[in-house]
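Margin note from the TA: students keep mixing up input and output lines. Inputs are the sequences; the output is the structure of the whole complex. Example:
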Amino acid sequence: MDFGPFLLLASLEGLVMAAVLALTAVGLSLVFGVMRVVNVAHGEFFMLGAISAWFVVDLVPGPAALGFAAALIISPLLVGAIAAIADMTILKRLHYEPEATIVATIGLLYIFQQLALTFYGADARPVEAPFSLRIQFPWFGYSGYKLAVIAASVVVLVGVWAFLTKTRAGLVMRATQLDRETAQAFGINVDRVFAGVFALGAALAATAAVLVVPIQQAHYLMGGDPLLLSFIVVIIGGLGSLRGTVVAALLIGLSDGIISVFFSPTLAKIIATLLVAMVLVFRPQGLFGRRPA
Amino acid sequence: MMLTVSRLSAGYGQVQVLREVNLTVAPGEVLCLMGRNGAGKSTALKGIMGLVRATGGEISLNGVRIDTLPAYKVPGLGIGYVPQGRRLFSELTVAENLQIGLAVRGHDADRLEHVLALFPRLRDRMGQTSGSLSGGEQQMLAIGRALCVEPAVLLLDEPTEGLQPSMIALIQETVLKLRATGVATVVVEQRVDAALAISNRITFLVNGRSADTVATRDMSPVDPLFARYVGI
Ligand SMILES: Nc1ncnc2c1ncn2[C@@H]1O[C@H](COP(=O)(O)OP(=O)(O)O)[C@@H](O)[C@H]1O
Ligand SMILES: [Mg+2]
């Protein structure tokens, strides 16, 4: 293949990765932004999304697309509910203290992993794509499903943006993020907002995971990579800045795709890590973050 | 509505700040809270809002206790709060800040019109982020946000702090207008002339305790109470 088409292929792979990463990282960023909680279990919500998608697809009879559509709705709701319960029973009791919540979410990480191992098993299992269309470019054919993942991610991200900026609930979340105490003084039930934000963050990770399982199999240890990459993206983009998170996901996804194809996946990870180190040294607030006042 | 605080004690964690605070304010009345820095004036207002938990004593509105409610339920009873330093949602627009206030009791455009009529300057700034306003405009917005609640009780914590004389005059005028409509107001004020100009009574706070409460009309600007409790 010539360089041009090769670069296009690598960019498409990078965009797919960026799409999934953006969804996952926006969830992490939202939780940190509003609640100031560093959720170490975020990757496990991703994993639970993938595994629950496998169960749903397995249980729903009929065409693959039907099971997949069901998973796309049920998995995020289920994982969101689990997250809301974890928030109300654990994080709330810790008064959302930064150190305590890090330790608690590390604990959650192991609990979710062991539960997945017990009830799902150690196997990696594939989920069939809802459709198997191949888009034929002049130089190569490409998975129509992967292109659909990019589109779906864009739709969900636009939805999140519209929710945050155009709805009453989104306004309440943003106000809570800016000043918890004053939010309460204006009738905002901060406990409820936090449960909702934690659920939304987890549901976004789960959505990303459902989109990913037809490409990458569901496995109980699959949460590690999305967690690490989300942290990288959120640090580069600026903690709590959603715009920065999306831009950084594009940056990391594209560079990972391109460098992996032309050189090696290991080099791609080295460069991403180097980028984080540089951001931490030269611009600790991230590309789009503001300096703490 | 009548706000009554009796023998209130409260603090932050292990640190007790309020030891015994008593105050009342009736509809159509302005009570001024005075005392030195650190006396507990702001903490007393936070206590009324439920933002600082009462560890003793009672707070009641028309005889119904409110100190047992979670903080987020307090404003819905008709209590508007203007915190010290304004505490606007700085990255939200003027309109969004007011929206937060309107949502407390489900008010709509009519209430907003009423508030904008009091502070017409906010009308031209609706789409701006509140952090980009001048100090005076920010204070108008902080008061406007509280008025969007349509409060029967209004708590103002140093609303004229750091403002120009013309703005101070506007805010005092607003407080008097609201008093005429029957709002019960508690205002923390450090300046004697301002306190005398707007209040019916003054409660002095010393070290987390309410000391004397006096009727303003009996006082002169050189009253020894000011020297004793406020150090002027
Ligand atoms: N968030 C807080 N945490 C701990 N102590 C506080 C806090 N806020 C105020 N204080 C303390 O409570 C006391 C009263 O403060 P405050 O109510 O703000 O006084 P005032 O408004 O009369 O100047 C002070 O000693 C202050 O240091
Ligand atoms: Mg104060």
